[in-house]
Amino acid sequence: MTQLDRRLFREMLREEWRLHTDLFGGRRFAAFPVMIAVIATGATWALTVSGTAIGAVIAGLHALVFAFGLHTGSMGLISRDAVRNLVGDATLLVFSGRTLPLSARRLVGIFLAKDAVYYSGLFLVPLSIGIVPIAGIGFLGRLPLLWASLSATFILGALMTFVGIGLTTRLPTAVVAVLLLGLIAVPWSIGVDPLSLTPYAFFRSPGALTALTSLLPLGAFAAIGLAAYDPTHRRPARTSDDRFSPIRDRLGDADGLLTKTLLDVSRSSGGFWKVVFSSGVLLAVTAGLIGIVEPLTGVKPSAPISFGALLGLSAFTTYNWLTQFDDLHEYSHHPVDAARVFRAKYRAFLLLGLPTVLGSYGVAIVLFGGAIVESIAGGILSVGTLLYLFGLTVYLTGFDPNEFLFDTLLYLAFTLGVSLGLVPVLILGFVLTPISPVLLGGIGVWGILLGGVGSELLRRSIPRWTRRYRR
Amino acid sequence: MTAIETEGLIKWFGDLRALDGLSLTVERGELFGLLGPNGAGKSTTIKILTGQLLPDAGRVSVLGTDPTTEPIATREQVGILPEREAPPSFMTPREYFSFVGSVRGLEEQTVNGRVGEWSNRLTLGEKLDTLVTDLSRGQQQKVMITAAFLAEPDLVFIDEPLANLDPIVQERVRQYLVSYVEAGNTVFLSTHHIEVAEAICTRVGIVTEGHLIDDRDPSTLDPDESLLDLFLANVEATDWDGGVEANP
User: Which pTM value belongs to this model?
Assistant: First the structure.
């Protein structure tokens, strides 16, 4: 590593810190690691109280960190457009190869090393420490191992994304997708557990062999990614017939604000499917929870109420997609006030979010069953939760749901709001079953109340954010 | 008739005093150029005049409306070309113009006709169906210029109109601005390009440290005097330091 590499590494670390403090509540961001530790402790406590073994919690933690690595690896590397969508008119040092005599591969390599150090320090240290109060003082000896294993898992995720991005600069996306799926399928098909090639295997049974099999994929992915990445690659320009006018006319959307939002979502990566995918993840997680709880506690959860409560959480991701590609300032040079923009987002949310959550709920009922009254109560609850969480998210975060929820205070407020709305019905759905008809009626009323509170929060959000954006 | 009038505008951003009692008047039919160094308050002035920002103190009137209390009424009457804003990434220029027409309540036929004129003027025709995210900065700037004039408003605010444009298109935009004002409209232009201001503006204001320090018709300058000399003399006289002052 040359002196210049070290300098670039330091500057990129500093840049990442400034980016986060700028986005996520200024100096309050420094408290974010503390919050991660607290949440990790709380979640571990809740899972172990409900009967989940600490080993299973740690396995789940590895899965979570792997997904986090996959996501983080894509940020910043894809394009300036992606960065601009997130942080506005900004550019990062990783792009400075365009103006300075630095190779793009060198910059990307240092960028990934910076990600590994930054996130393993700021996020994974508190995440690991958060386990200790529940796992017991005896776990302290394994803490360095857990942290190292989680850090390597994070790097594995980031490198897999980097390999994917690198390959798409040379191959069609569909071919790259098949290749990446093959990476998992091939070992599986010859009887090798893919998990044995991950850092989690090293955590389970530390030793020279597992260290080698865990680290080998990291080196291989880093080498493939750097070799495949073509910094001169430029995506061909995309064209389209006029889709705006027909959609606007069909929807009766006179000012076109709703149509614009729908076009943004449909033309960005993943199209409308990303909304369905987010809901599908919640469906799978809820199904997993129901599957775990019954054998551990002996209580059969109410599938309709559990799904009704948890599927509404998709409100947050759906609203995030709806606001990911524009901001309120973009509309400020048109004769449009914030109220009209928020209303358009709300209509787009109803058009995309409502059918998605009801569709997911329908699938859940088909798969898990449920009495008619219970299913109706769960259905009302799913819609009520969806509207409540939408109103809560807009009220707290305005037009920037994703970024500002990492502001420690906002995140705590959001968590409190979600808990107030969901914990009572989750206790009913997971613990106090079978639920009496009277309580089912109460859950239906609770769903309607939640929807009402969500609408009221949305109504109050408009003047609140209009004032703030004009300051 | 007065198009724009401000009196004692003050605007703070934390510890940064962006405007410090800015007062100016622009008559209808003028092509008014606001000149000033970086951070002098030009863009902030435009944002307040168009209701995008609220001033901390002062009075403002635009075409008889008060942008601080009725921003939409103001913006219905004016066009805005912001300095760094790009059109929405996932629309084509043609779709974006339809969107602007919808927001401003223009007939589709009117929009199509004006888009045709502007496409010819700015040589944008081949790119009308390309997603904005795949256009160059210069092409995106052409889209923003077209959008600002699409409703043919009485008054247009322009923040650095010629950035990223090739010389031929720059000249066409300059000529258009002159003819637009000759037709009785008003243009409020913020620019660093002193030669542009000297060539086309009917009146120029020089702003530094958040207030107007000179205001004159460039054609009245002495033969041995240039707008650049005037600008440098004014800015250097104020000992310009970037406008940062402690908030009292």
Answer: 0.78
